């Protein structure tokens, strides 16, 4: 029997006999583990070869340890050669999207540190930052993240920002007529994405309750125009439109963009004000509603990849191959 050496299709991480990426090696003591005969082993390895290149919902079984044992029968007429192998299921890391946190902080940016250290989001979309040009970026810096901001052009309050993990390449996007609204678009190119996606387009916006019908209509037009242009330039991009929409009629722009609204539970009292629209909802798990940041009256929303739990859990079992000499 040969040892299978696996390589992630994009991650480039080897699976060898001693260590599987960041996965711990199995224990040497296998006496209490399930023993499986040769036919079961062959069937298990056959399943491995039947996984298609685009499959991302099943981990790959890889043999990572092997040791030989010799056993003699009671009469000493023959001996049994046992090859004890340990199968460990190594998850496909490239199926992961990014973890996104949406929060209305009500100018309490300092309290984001606790949330980021607990849930490790790749992207933090923030509304109501209450920042202005007199506040330097260093004053709102978050360890391990770069920040892109858009402050309210006049008056106090409002403003949006995006914290992005320093390991992700990103750039700010500008559009005509966007300066009049608290709408920020960011292009992200993570190191690994599902094959169906070329990049990620993330927007964070804040619609103040004071907007009248005319202002809301213009904002809807800007959202449709900007998103449509981006998808023409990057047709395979994953789109996330996040923010505090307040009284904005989101169905009016979403009937053109045909995105899925993921947040189903209230985020402020009995209302769903903080929403996330995306074109790749099937790749994400259902959002988690987290407690508010600081003294904010808005709950946070955390969106993780659909395989987040599966990709952080390994399952090991022992396979015994016997030969009679």
3D structure, described in words:
This protein is an alpha+beta fold and 325 residues long. It folds into two domains: 6-94 and 310-324, no CATH class; 97-303, Deoxyribonuclease I, Chain A (4-Layer Sandwich), CATH 3.60.10. The protein contains four helices and 17 strands. The chain has helices at residues 38-49, 112-119, 213-233, 250-257, and strands at 6-7, 14-15, 60-72, 79-90, 100-104, 123-127, 145-150, 160-165, 169-173, 182-189, 200-206, 238-244, 260-261, 274-278, 288-290, 300-303, 316-324. It has a six-stranded mixed sheet, with no helix packed on it. Strands 9-10-11-12-14-13 form a six-stranded mixed sheet, covered by helices on one side. β3 (60-72) and β4 form a beta hairpin.
